[in-house]
Structure prediction request, 676 residues.
Amino acid sequence: MLKTNLPLLFFVFLCFLFLKTSAQDITEFKNLLDSAETPQERLAALDSLSNPKMRAQNIDEFITYSLEYIELAKELDSIPSAAKKMINVSYTLTSVKNQPRQVLTLIDGLLARKYSIKDSRLLGNLYLKRGGANTRLDLQQSVIDYQNAIDNFSNKDSLYVADAYLFSGQSYSNLGKFVPAGESYQKAYEYFEALKDYEYMYYARQGITTMFSMNGFFDKAKEERDKNIEKIKELDLGHHLVVVYYNQALDYDKQGKKELYLEYLLKAEKAIELDINDKVNPWNKIFVYTNLTEYFAKENNIEKTEAYLALLQYNFETAKDDLVNQVNYYGALAHYHYAMSDLKKAQQFAEQKLEVAKKLGYEEVILDAYEILAMVYEANGNYKLGLESRNRYIALKDSIYNKTTANKLAYYQTLYETEKKENELIEKSTNIRLLEKDNEASKKRLIYSVIALLSIFGMVLLYRNRMRFKSKKIMQEQFSQELLVSQEEERKRISKDLHDGLGQRLLLIKNNVLKTQDEDTKLLVETAIDEVRSISRNLHPFQLQELGITKAIEYTVNQVDENTNLFITSEIDNIDNIFSKKQEVNLYRIIQESLSNVIKHASAEAGKVVVRRYPHMVNISIRDNGVGFDFSDKFQNIKSLGLKTLLERTKFLNGQMKVNSKKNNGTLLEFQFPIA
Prediction:
């Protein structure tokens, strides 16, 4: 007994603590409201008094202060603030106080000034709440409102768009328009799936199931529910099994299958017990416990009736303002007191159920209210009121049956129209395919012709580009070779001027110095003469003319060996009279520049020059044991002209140049020149 009452005592304690704190806050905010001197201060106080947390303290004051806030915000031209407050109070006015027309009036007043609302989420939600109010007044208009909501939401508001599609599906379903209802539910499902909101994915699937159920397609509804159960278990959403089992129980009740009705109610109860994280909505618990209370009351099982009624009362306290919960609670009490033969209280609660049911406008709930009233009146001996309630019960039941039948006909008509349209589309598609087949050959010919023309054009363009590139390359090579010849001529001229001009003058100076016996000056003049001769020889190798190419190469190698730290050896075959004078100059320059690169960059200790003469070619190799280099990096370096010059000279001789070099492993330069 103690274990059973602990949760209730803890709940009561928390409620007491919350109410005490809230009462203090409300008093403070009311004092602020009374003492407010400016509209802005009054608006701030009203905002606190109409906070959703204050709703639990006094729902009527919550509504009053919310409406006062909306009017004051409108006067201050703060339409977005008024819209936010309207969205917060809409559910209470529509579902709890059953005042959907007032909601429409207030929202229409805000929408008349919607140009002031820049936030897409605010504007979309106003239409969403308007649609919710119209579900109780004009289902067709609610569909329009939900579409307006979708149109006004932005890409960032996909969660609200999904809600709009979900509610739109419900309205279409209640109108008996199954195809758009199914489409709306499917779109809602896709949005929730993209958001990974698995619970609302389930709600969208449940909407499709409910659509079948409420229109009498019980087998189809059962088939969909079985799929939902598998999905719920797969996604670990066990708390949703309560609603699935409960709705299936209601379907069995409508079919008169009482044993299955009880079986699924007990399954729903079991799902509530297994919900250790308390995720089951109190509303859903109220539905289940209401039906179990009524079932066992009808069976005169008072013990179980009172047990389930206690559970119902406990959960009803957490959500007693909602009209749907009230209608369930009053119905359960009416059945309980009827079973206890307390007909006065039974009548009282049955009449309360009827009154609230009429406010809600739920025909099936009104039907249940007339049934229990008829039973109570008849048991009281008031046969006139009993007959009157019974007749209303029968008339309403026939009306519901006729609507369900009409919806079934609409459903089958929709299926017929859909199938008819599909057949028409198939026929049109067939005709189109036949026409496409007739044109296929001509299309292929056209495509092949275009491809052929493009190929020819491409080949011509490619050939022209290739020829232009080749011509450009030839011109570049010709320019390089002419530049080398021009360079050599200029060197020859400068060398001659140095030798014949400056060299002769220095000799005259030397002779004059000899007469004066000035040894220091004589030494300086001799050094200058040697430097001029060296520069002259480097600029133009006169030894080529005097000694021939073979001796000139030997002389150069000896000069390097004698005047540098590089130890160099050579193996040189006689290659005189093989090449023209211009070719010999370039051949000499190749060896001279290669050795110069070794001295400047290789940091080598030894090197070797080999010149081999073969029947059809001359092969020259220059090897060193220096630091080596990366050929591709060196060749692509703009500042490095040595390798490029060697390559141009090689091309001038129609030869081939090979470079084999690795860092820290020395370098081998190899040249091959054909003999004409």
In short: Residues 543-674 form a domain with the Heat Shock Protein 90 fold (CATH 3.30.565.10). Residues 83 and 110 are 7 Å apart (CA to CA). DSSP finds 25 helices and five strands in the chain. Residues 1-21, 418-423 have pLDDT under 50 and may be disordered.
